[in-house]
Amino acid sequence: MIDRRRVVKGGLAAVGSLAAPTSLLAQARPPVKVRYNEVVRSLLYAPAYVAITKGFFKDAGLDVTLTTAFGGDKSTAALLSNTADIALIGPETAIYVLNSDSSSKIRIFCGLTSTDGFMLVGRDKVDKFDWKMLKGKEILGFRPGSTPLLFLEEALRMNGIDPQKDVKLNNNVAIPARVGSWLAGQNQYAIFIEPDAAQLELDGKAHFLASIGQTVGFADYTSFMATDQYIKDNPGVVQTWTDTIYKAQKWTETAKIPELVSALEQFFPGISPKAMAAAAERYQKLKIWKNSPVIEPAAIDKFQDILVNGNVLEKAKRVKFQDLVRTEFASKAK
User: Residue 265: pLDDT above 90?
Assistant: First the structure.
């Protein structure tokens, strides 16, 4: 995950002419091209990959082109500059744009993940983990202002640990260097996303202690969004996209692990099949993937609580749920 806090405040409105009613998309006509931008490549986004590899998008009449931005600011810029139609990013990006001077606004229309997907790991295996074990220790965190760090800090606070005083969070390690830093012996604890966490476990280099997302609770962590203009011009595409993601979510929820790994492996070349299986099984068991595109107000409230607690969002700049989320598409999903 990349620090998704920085947002380009200016930009062009996304104007498209790819619209087609949902009923027409199912008919024999040229597929509708959709430029899809994901914030990073992560197993956390499994249902979206399933929709591609299982042919769900194609069957629905969508010709999807996937690009990876490697940064929430870059995904946001792609939407605002009309170089992407739909993006998968954290809700905070839409919140920041709503609070910005940008004439173009971004709205969420479909949920994908229910909460944070990072795992807390340690160097030693323990019979029963207690968060108090972290006091006075060094923890490999994430980039300042990033959602992985904000959710880790929230989990610490929920367990009586002051992230600024009781532990030393090392947040200056570049993302590509994080695994290497851990293998070099730096820090006693760390957070890793899947499949890195599973691979480190299989190699005997780390031991799972807790799920950050399970600890914090449901707070929609990543969702699909588009500009107001794109949604206005392409309601049929947006509805079809949401319908297709819902289908992929239901498939992912009950899929047997070997089948799930088979559907995902092309997006993760070089990753051990055993690590992929362990990671997929853990996400499935913890219900990290949503089983519906519907986003509830309580989840967005909690997400904004975390932003406020982490001092990246002023209380006065919290946004209303109805201003952030277009609920009609998920509510009609079939």
Answer: yes
